[in-house]
Design brief:
Layout (H helix, E strand, L loop, with lengths): L4 H11 L1 H5 L3 E5 L4 E6 L13 H23 L3 E12 L6 E6 L2 H14 L3 E10 L5 E13 L4
Antiparallel strand pairs: 1-2, 2-4, 3-6, 4-5, 5-6
Helix pairs in contact: 3-4
Length: 153
């Protein structure tokens, strides 16, 4: 079963309702990149009338996590994944429609191959950049993902 934006968004409705109800939606996903958008609304704003940082974080993490899920599924192996670390930089108020994009899909292939080959856990840093409708960067998130092939019991 191919991972599509619609399938991910439906999954979020039932398994990650805070993502869904704050308006975070996957727009596109392929082997190299994932794009997610979220529109600034009353439900996801902070007291300063811009998008709450945590909503931006959910959208950014989804770009990296969806790519990771897709690549793990394609590997056919039972691999666990976990965010081990993250950091963010905010450069402009997030208002309007914000697009988050991660273009690090190719990094995942190498990490999965090494995890399968060695049986040891691997870590990979992935970046997601949020831009507003004018193409101006509003935030950059970095996530360190840890992956490990699960042993058969």
């Amino acid at each position: 079963m191919k991972l599509t934006p619609r399938k991910i968004n439906t999954f979020n409705l039932f398994k990650l309702p805070s993502v869904f109800f704050t308006g975070v939606r996957v727009k596109s996903i392929n082997n190299e990149a994932c794009t997610v958008y979220v529109k600034h609304r009353w439900i996801n704003q902070n007291p300063f009338k811009s998008m709450f940082w945590a909503v931006q974080g959910m959208a950014a993490e989804l770009t990296t996590g969806a790519l990771m899920l897709m690549k793990i599924k394609e590997s056919g192996k039972n691999i666990s994944m976990l965010v081990a670390n993250n950091n963010a930089t905010f450069t402009k108020k997030a208002t309007g429609k914000i697009m988050f994009a991660c273009n690090d899909g190719n990094k995942i292939d190498d990490a999965i191959a090494k995890a399968i080959e060695t049986g040891e856990g691997q870590t990979i840093w992935m970046q997601s950049t949020g831009t507003n409708a004018d193409g101006v960067e509003v935030s950059v998130f970095n996530f360190e993902w840890s992956i490990k092939v699960k042993s058969k019991k």
